[in-house]
Specification:
10 strands; 0% helix; mainly beta; Jelly Rolls
């Protein structure tokens, strides 16, 4: 199958203390997450950003968390794993979360079969 090389989502705004899917496998077409940018939208509070790989039917938990990074106020961090995060079963997701201290804007790039 051909790969679609582009952003996997628009900028995703995640409120403090919540999570949101940024990539989902549809029709058994593999998704390869190459990089994730996280920007702390708070001008005064340090918070954390998390990345999870959640299997179909599962939920966000520490057992499927890959990254938990500190992001300073108004700073942007770049998460680039040595190998792409690959999800391949229909319904599997890569989800991102923001700590309880403030919101985070996420942007993800990678490839998707299809």
């Amino acid at each position: 199958m051909a790969l679609s090389r582009a952003q996997l989502s628009d900028v995703t705004v995640v409120s403090a203390g919540s999570t949101q899917a940024i990539a989902t496998v549809a029709g058994s077409n593999k998704v390869f997450v190459k990089s994730i940018m996280a920007h702390n939208t708070s001008g005064v509070t340090t918070t954390t950003a998390q990345v999870y790989v959640v299997p179909n039917g599962g939920s966000v938990a520490t057992s499927n968390r890959l990254f938990n990074v500190t992001v300073e106020p108004d700073e942007t961090i770049y998460i680039e794993p040595a190998y792409p995060i690959t999800i391949e079963t229909t319904g599997d997701t890569v989800q991102v979360g923001a700590g309880s201290n403030g919101g985070i804007n996420f942007f993800v790039t990678g490839d998707q079969e299809g």
